[in-house]
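[Solved] Which block belongs to which protein?

Original post:
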Amino acid sequence: MFIQVLKSKIHRVTVTEANLDYIGSITIDSALMEAAGIIPGERVYIVDNNNGERFDTYAIPGEAGSGVICLNGAAARRVHRGDVVIIMAYAFVTPEEGAEIKPRLVFPDTLTNRIIG
């Protein structure tokens, strides 16, 4: 049996763009992706703190240090520029592996979306 557990979380970043005319995904500053252990193409879950929307898509890397958080395609209809979101990724593991997992949590500056410290 496998269970799903949190492996990565980017906590409280601000949406910088919403681009409806794109195939789909979320563009994330690659420095944030690396810090959280999220790889290009990985499925991520988005929670919008401003409107309560919850949805999933896949991650694509943006320019490192740019602070970009851009919802693309249909997901652009679920958020607004300036909304604060949480980005999470989960892993399928055995219960034994799940008991040992320590999620990689990233707490960037919410105004700039850059890693603090």
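(Second protein starts here: sequence line, then its structure tokens.)
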Amino acid sequence: MSIGLIIKQERIKQNIKQINLAKGICSISYLSKIENNLSSPNRVIIDLLLKRLNIKEIDCVLDEENVINSLYKVYKEGVLYRDEKYIRKRLEELTERHIRFSSNKNFCLFTAYKCRLKLISGININDLLPDIELFQSLKTQDGHKEVFQINLILGLFFYLNKEYTKALNYLKKGLKLIRISNIEDWEKADFYNIISLAYFENNSLSQAEYFADKALKFYHDNLILNRAIDSYILLGNIEKRLKNYNRAEEYFSLAKKISQDIKLPYYEAIILQNVGSIFSLKGDSNKALTHFEECIKLKKYCSDKSSYLLTVLSIVKELSKMQQRLRLLYWCKHGIDIIDNDKRRELEPYSYHFSLYQNIYAETSFNDNQIKEVIVYFEKTGDFRHVLKYSLLLAELFAKQNKYKCSVFYFQKAKINLFEQQLIKNWEDL
């Protein structure tokens, strides 16, 4: 029975250690056996553990397969069509229920489907940590659908947490199971899209393109247009990174046509952002700014403040290239004002970006301690790209002041982070 996993899941969720849950009820080793289904639990002990966890009721269902299949239908709708309002409503019906299943397989499938739906509904990914810890602790057998789902959720979680290497490792495990598990074509397409994103962030562009094409074929053939847009945008970004700018623009143009046909302005904003970045890479800051400013208009009333701030930062970068100090400082202040009014943790990186540009373009000389703080922040968050970028900046600023010892130190830091970003160890591998 899955009662052991329910106890383990709730204990992790409440941040209770095994020693504290077991105290006065059973030994820690016996609790561990219960949680890992290595022992048939004593009913009295189970009741005491549930009481300590404040679990008042556990639902027993007669037809488990029907419960799983019903949730699977919601899961399919959620993944393919992203109706957040519908998903949140269904999640409200499921979140507070503790359902006991006769097998770990059904419990894991039920939990994995809920995790994915929560992510689509816009939940903070840290709210999934108890389930992620549970999944990581499970000893599963290869070849089962629940193992595929567990690796998919773990891969997606670590991708969203920007731990791209770890994400790809889990997704590769899932890839091995596609051929031997009962996975439907739409699930395969969804998985191909996710693993393509992971390969892209790990700079394995040929693999990213291969899986993005596989996902697009399914979405295109089955007229799932919103997901086809996702694939076109991803392929555009792959071509952009390969510096095939004309090909990238073709993909973005196809995505834009579909988004206009089915009236999805959110996608139009994403496309404007990406086309603007192409002009930026081509050195045309004026055209880049035009696209970013149009993008801002579409994002103005969007609830996704992180996406909005990304475009504000893009504007700041172009104004920096053009040395337009006053306009740059205006947009930096605008970005910081939004962050001050929101306070969400995921917006924190932008406050460091904007404060750094304010520092550089202040009327007084730059404050190197403040730039060092920015570099330390991105080191702690594992953002090698921005450690590299801002270390190079500080090295050059020190060189202009003839502080060559400090300059060499930050050039060295930039080199180390370049290697980290490229996943290499030696200069010969560049």
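Accepted answer:
You had them paired correctly. Confirming on the second one: The mean pLDDT is 88.
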